Amino acid sequence: MRRRRWIVFLGLAALIVTADQLSKLWIDANFALASPYAVPGTAQPTPVIGDLVRIAKTYNSGGIFGLFGQSAPVLALASTFVIALIFVYHAREGTRSHWLLSVALGFLLGGAVGNLIDRLRLGAVIDFVDTGIGTFRWYTFNVADSAISTAIVLFIVMTLIGDRLAGQREAVTT
Description:
61% of the residues lie in helices and 13% in strands. It has helices at 2-30, 72-94, 99-122, 143-160, 162-173; strands spanning 46-49, 53-60, 125-133, 136-137. A hairpin with a 2-residue loop joins strand 3 and strand 4 (136-137).
């Protein structure tokens, strides 16, 4: 059982890192810098699903939602610490808790590693998915960010229905 949890955890993380890095390499090679808003000197976003989903390649040297400005080195160091904590937490809890925890931690690890690779390689994270309607736009994001967001949703679900998950775990182990 423990071995399967590690396979799920590391397999999901590897899948996410691969999808994240391949998508970023493709976007970086095939699209010009673009702003979701009309900014002089940048290209217009490329529509994917009309105005709802567009490709707008940007380099984010800050943190989530562009917070913390030009702090890629500090964020890279923090990411390394978080990655270590994810491994430790999975070793302690992921292998004996509900399997959904291994899935959530795999998503979280894959997202953290994907963005860390960009920070180390480029000094910024490549973001490119632009969603919204008209001038109301969400923050531009990437595959790694999506994986981190998915992990957060899974953690919330586990918190809300954790007692039912614990009951399933006990039924399986007995």
